[in-house]
Write a structure and sequence with these properties.
Length: 219
């Protein structure tokens, strides 16, 4: 199953990816997580990415496409993958199609989760994530049992610096300008599925399961 999860920052892509992964055995590839790991490790890639992430801008295509190509070449992606946060530009989408066609594979579905802008801001500004296992919570909508501590692994929960309101709003603008045109790209390819993300996470997941069943994927 070769899937793309699309939608603006805060739409619930990471949350849905965790639910999908629990029922369908595919690796979850989040370019945002890959960049945050690189920043934490202080690698050259991390140093480069950080300057863009801090400003709410996209990391340049040549850098991003390179790390995704490398990741998709790993053996665990042979049977499929779930991309979250990639592609975000037309150049990235075209590069992905090229990688796929070289391997005689194709993207089977692009699932677009939509949520109104003010809800997106509430979601991003209240998001906290585990420094250890990356689980995502929300201080109001999905709080951990104990404030600041991950229910799953006991790790520390922190707010991402790019989730502060000013940067979150900038990221929404960048999404509108650079990423939303991709919805037309996948619509034209006949693989776009739109889902109302402004509902309980389990209701959203139920719709995603329907889409997956419609393209012949069973749990
Ligand atoms: P994305 O990966 O698209 O940026 P996340 O999955 O990290 O989004 O979700 C953003 C925030 O919204 C998190 O704090 C998450 O707990 C919360 N969230 C996700 N889905 C829902 C939902 N359906 N209803 C309410 N809050 C949600
Ligand atoms: P995310 O975790 O998906 O919200 O991404 C966090 C940040 O990482 C973004 O604001 C970008 O700076 C960077 N990033 C993640 N994915 C991409 C991508 N596909 N292209 C460019 N930059 C990205």
């Amino acid at each position: 199953m070769n899937l793309i999860l699309m939608g603006p920052p805060g739409a619930g892509k990471g949350t849905q990816a965790e639910l999908i992964k629990a029922s369908y055995p595919v690796p979850h590839i989040s370019t945002g997580d890959m960049f945050r790991d690189a920043v934490q490790e202080g690698t050259e890639l991390g140093l480069k990415a950080k300057s863009y992430m801090d400003k709410g801008q996209l990391v340049p295509d040549e850098v991003t496409i390179g790390i995704v190509e490398e990741r998709l070449a790993q053996p665990d992606c042979k049977e499929g993958f779930l991309l979250d946060g990639f592609p975000r530009t037309t150049a990235q989408a075209e590069a992905l199609d090229e990688v796929m066609s070289k391997q005689q594979r194709r993207i089977e579905a692009a699932i677009n989760i939509s949520v109104p802008e003010e809800v997106l801001i509430q979601r991003t500004t209240g998001r906290v994530s585990c420094t250890r296992c990356k689980s995502v919570y929300h201080v109001v909508f999905n709080p951990p049992q104990q404030s600041g501590i991950c229910d799953k692994c006991g790790g520390e929960l922190i707010q991402r610096s790019d989730d502060e309101e000013e940067t979150a709003r900038k990221r929404l603008q960048v999404y509108q300008q650079q990423t939303s045109p991709l919805l037309d790209y996948y619509e034209e390819h006949g693989i776009l599925h739109n889902i109302d993300g402004n509902r309980d996470a389990m209701q959203v997941f139920a719709d995603i399961q329907e889409v997956l069943a419609s393209i012949g994927k069973s749990q």
